[in-house]
Design brief:
- With about 210 residues, this protein is α/β, with parallel strands linked by helices.
- The protein has one domain: 3-Layer(aba) Sandwich (Rossmann fold), CATH 3.40.50.150.
- About 30% of the residues lie in helices and about 25% in strands.
- The protein has six helices and seven strands, in the order H-H-E-E-H-E-E-H-E-H-H-E-E.
- Strands 3-2-1-4-5-7-6 form a seven-stranded mixed sheet.
- Strand 2, helix 3 and strand 3 form a beta-alpha-beta unit.
- The protein starts with a helix and ends with a strand.
Length: about 210
């Protein structure tokens, strides 16, 4: 259900956006976020990178000098319905249309990104486990989350779901605990955007 409404959201959002202008601005956005995480995330040329839940213009678009795997269950719909997603523009990226919970390969990565995606998965515990298993020992996991600001609304939304795109209702400490219980250390928690119900955070963790 969340994925169905996700592709509808993307089509509405990108409908009147010029492709080239959008991609230029998106790259600026990713570079700005990476700069904010530069104390804990230092990409080195030659690293292998996973972009899990990549969307049509995920962080993969700025890693043209790296070996990148980008996965998303909606990639086929993006390719067919969005002019803003053209896989041929990224010859260094291997794309796979698969849900994170079903992603299972022997390859491990130096940097594992999951941005604007973990809140949409059907099985949250399994999704975090797949991210953890995809990371090399000592490598970084960069996960963005929409976390509740108020305990009252968190419990209310659990009883009466009101956000179809975000089926999981947790606060920041609960999301951080999902990583630490997998034997990860939290290196940085970056507040990206604060709103009334939710705040958007970028969590950088290291696999121990």
């Amino acid at each position: 259900m969340a994925q169905y409404f996700e592709i509808r959201w993307w089509k509405r959002y990108l409908k009147d956006k010029d492709v080239d202008t959008y991609l230029v601005n998106k790259k600026k956005y990713w570079h700005r976020l990476l700069h904010q995480m530069s104390d804990t995330v230092q990409p080195v040329e030659g690293m292998k990178i996973l972009d899990a839940g990549c969307g049509p213009a995920g962080v993969f678009i700025v890693f043209d000098k790296y070996e990148v795997k980008a996965i998303d269950p909606l990639l086929d719909q993006y390719r067919e319905g969005l002019a803003h997603f053209t896989p041929a523009m990224y010859p260094n990226v291997k794309f796979e249309a698969i849900a994170l919970e079903h992603f299972n390969e022997h390859e491990q990565y130096d940097l594992v990104f999951c941005i604007n995606a973990i809140n949409h998965v059907s099985d949250l515990d399994e999704a975090f486990l797949r991210l953890y298993n995809s990371a090399k020992k000592g490598s970084k996991l960069i996960v963005s989350i929409d976390a509740h600001n108020h305990g009252f609304f968190k419990h209310l939304f659990r009883l009466q779901p009101g956000d179809i795109l975000h089926p999981h209702q947790y606060d920041l400490p609960e999301y951080e605990q999902m990583l630490t219980k997998l034997n990860c250390s939290i290196l940085q928690t970056l507040l990206v955007k604060r709103e009334f119900f939710f705040s958007h955070y970028m969590i950088v963790a290291q696999k121990n």
